[in-house]
TrEMBL record:
Chain intervals with Low complexity compositional bias: 42-55
Superkingdom classification of source: Eukaryota
Family of the protein in this entry: Belongs to the gamma-BBH/TMLD family.
Record GO terms (molecular function): 2-oxoglutarate-dependent dioxygenase activity; metal ion binding
Descriptive protein name: Gamma-butyrobetaine dioxygenase
Keyword Electron transport in annotation: no
Cofactor: L-ascorbate; Fe(2+)
SUPFAM superfamilies: Clavaminate synthase-like
Domain Gamma-butyrobetaine hydroxylase-like N-terminal residue range list: 67-147
Entry GO terms, CC: mitochondrion
Assigned keywords, A-Z: Carnitine biosynthesis, Dioxygenase, Iron, Metal-binding, Oxidoreductase
Length: 451
């Protein structure tokens, strides 16, 4: 065991595959904040070898606070800084961490966020860092574990690559021969690689077609359960889209469905829509229209910032009322058409003529500008460069991102004597479950996450 108090020493620190790493340790906290002047600096690195600090707004952080970190220098010469409070918060001992549930249990009510170490050591094999805290607590961290959690930008980017897939925005030029890719239903059902490939396409492009499914009403449920759990809504779990005598939704008619996203009136809107074609309309009609709303939003933002502002700020009352299976429902959710996150990324689009309430609960002066903006958004969405058409065949499942892709359906002729009646079975999945599945599968499968 090499100790680092009151002196200088070179230490070997390993982190997994990359082998042992020669390091030095220092804690800035003790240089600047400790009255006992305990100094862990064992081999200060020359200035030019210091790693890039994480991007913190310096103006908002005091010098003393900035200095509260432990510096570890890896064998290759690069150094990493770990905040002392973060180290204490992430102590892996049984008092602070429950290994079976992989959960932090540090008592935050009593945890001292200004805690300092009394001593820092590195095991002889360089694989473990041991911190003795001034409150007599003791923490051990594996070098590999620390290395993975470095605050440097490259390490943070690597971690975040497992969070969400980068979106590939498309227009009809990129989808000329729609669909760009087809996925074999049996391969998706029976191989993890097949499942992963489909889900990645779904997240990146927002739309994917499976083929070769049988014509069973329970197929789409089996597919949903292969991924995670089927998402229930007031229309049930699987729902039959066909012409009905007393329809609770305009989809259950032979009429055209204008471009829309499903269920905008749910605050927690189902993330993915799967439409399994059991029987397609024999004559004209019954095609689906598909539009990447991210491209439309991007064009609107560039060409007409005022319209974009209206669609991102004016809240709309999305609603649905009715009775399904004897249960009355009255859903309502208020949100703009284009919903952005704090960084201005579009995270959800709501768009549906039938499900926009006639209550427009905004100040009078916002109304006209909003209508003009919606008209422009619709014009762009329907333009040839953005809208693709596809008529699904029996055995195909059209899957798409319901937060992003606008979809529609052209009208079709009624079946004669109920023979060859158009019949689609739909079901929903949630993005939280899909993303979890993608992460688990990516760890097992050789397929790289980004492609
Ligand atoms: C729907 C829908 C498409 C179709 O039911 O919401 O979009 O092809 N259906 O019938
Ligand atoms: Zn602990
Ligand atoms: Zn729909």
């Amino acid at each position: 065991m090499l100790r680092t108090m009151y002196g200088q020493a070179k230490l070997l620190l390993g982190h997994g595959k990359e082998g042992s790493h020669l390091i030095s340790i220092s804690t800035e906290a003790h240089r600047t904040a400790s009255s006992t002047a305990t100094n862990f600096s064992v081999q200060p690195q020359p200035k030019q070898q210091q790693p890039q600090q994480p991007q913190v707004p310096k103006a908002a952080v005091s010098r003393a606070r900035l200095a509260r970190h432990l510096e570890l220098t890896w064998r290759q010469g690069s150094a990493s800084h770990f905040p002392l409070t973060w180290l204490r918060d992430n102590c892996q001992c049984p008092q602070c961490y429950h290994p079976e549930s992989k959960s932090r249990t540090v008592d935050w009510a009593t945890c001292d966020v200004t805690i300092k170490p009394k001593d820092v050591q590195v095991s002889d094999d360089g694989k473990t860092v041991i911190v003795d805290w001034l409150d007599a607590h003791n923490s051990r961290f594996s070098a590999e574990w620390l290395h993975e959690r470095r605050f440097e930008e490259d390490a943070r980017k690597k971690w975040l690559s497992t969070y969400k897939q980068k979106k590939h925005i498309w227009g009809s030029a990129q989808e000329e021969n729609f669909p760009r890719k087809r996925f074999n239903f049996s391969a998706v059902m029976s191989t993890d690689g097949g499942l992963l490939q489909w889900l990645l396409e779904l997240e990146m492009r927002g739309v994917a077609i499976l083929e070769g499914a049988d014509s069973d009403e329970s197929t789409v449920r089996k597919l949903a359960e292969r991924v995670a759990f089927i998402r229930r809504t007031h229309y049930g779990e699987e729902f039959n889209v066909k012409s009905k005598s007393d329809p609770s939704n305009v989809a259950y008619t032979e009429q055209a469905l204008q471009l829309h996203t499903d269920l905008p009136y749910y605050e927690y809107k189902p993330g993915v829509n799967m439409l399994h074609c059991l029987m397609q309309a024999q004559g004209e009609g019954g095609e689906n229209q598909l539009v990447d709303s991210l491209r439309v939003a991007m064009q609107l933002k560039q060409n007409n910032p005022e319209a974009y502002k209206a669609l991102t700020t004016v809240p709309i009352d999305w609603s649905d009322r009715g009775v399904e299976d004897g249960r009355p429902f009255q859903s309502l959710h208020r949100a703009p058409v284009i919903c952005e996150d704090a960084e201005g990324n579009v995270v959800r689009v709501n768009y549906s003529q039938p499900q926009r309430d006639s209550h427009f609960s905004v100040p009078l002066e916002q109304v006209d500008g909003w209508y003009l903006a919606l008209k422009e958004f619709t014009r762009l969405a329907l333009s040839d460069e953005n809208c693709v058409q596809y008529k699904t065949k029996p055995g195909e499942i059209l899957s798409f991102d319901n937060l992003r892709i606008l979809h529609g359906r052209s009208s079709y002729s009624p079946a004669v004597n109920q023979i060859y009646e158009r019949h689609i079975v739909g079901a929903y999945l949630d993005w939280d479950e899909i993303r979890s599945r993608i992460r688990v599968l990516s760890q097992q499968e050789p397929t790289p996450l980004a492609h």
